[in-house]
Amino acid sequence: IFGETAQEMAAQLAYARQDPAVRAVVLAINSPGGSAAYSEELFMDVLNTREELPVVASVDLLAASGAYYVAAAADEIYAKPTSNVGSIGVIAILPGPVFLDDELITTGPYKAFGGTQDSTLRQIEMAKFAFLDAIASGRGDRLLAGAEQLSRAEIFSGVQAEEMGLIDGLLSS
Fold it and tell me: pTM for this structure?
């Protein structure tokens, strides 16, 4: 889930909301995720779509990380018994150490680096908790797993995901 794919999905959701012939949306998901920002944006877009149309997510092989983030906004989520679901968390690269260069002029001490490693760690933690909150709000009372278990960022089989309340049911062949 990055710029182009997020824009395509957002356009398809907008089309579905605007076309009176569309009576429901099925999100066919097979993705390892991607950008936290784009995943969050699509989560909110699916929530907006859900206000106007029923939205169901169907997991093929994989709904991990940002892909599960998006799926959690659907009214219902279904997966195959052996689908991989979860990886609820964030990956980021810490900025390198701050250094001074007499030939590099910036308008702020962190302009060239984006911030300190400590501030980056705080941002990652905030993104993780936003992800966990989105899962909790999207799944509601159906979610049986706690934040501590989910924040380990494990990937679960469809069977495990159903037992934990991450999905609503299993697809059969």
Answer: 0.90
